[in-house]
Amino acid sequence: MIRKILPHPYLTVTLVMVWLMLANSYTLNSLVFAILVGLVIPWITAPYWPARPRFAKPLKIIEYISIVIWDIIVANITVAKIVLFMPNSKLHPAWVTVPLDIVTPEAVTVLAGTITMTPGTLTAELAADGHSLLVHALHAPDADEVRDEIKSRYEARLKEIFE
Amino acid sequence: MELFWDILISALLVIGGIFGLVGSFGLVKLPDPMTRLHAPTKAATLGVGAILIASMVWFAVKQGHLTLHELMVTIFIFLTAPITAHFISKANIFRDWPAEKLPKPAGEGDWAVHTADADTSKGELAVDREKNIPHEND
Question: Which residues form a coiled coil (chain A) (predicted)?
Answer without folding.
Answer: none
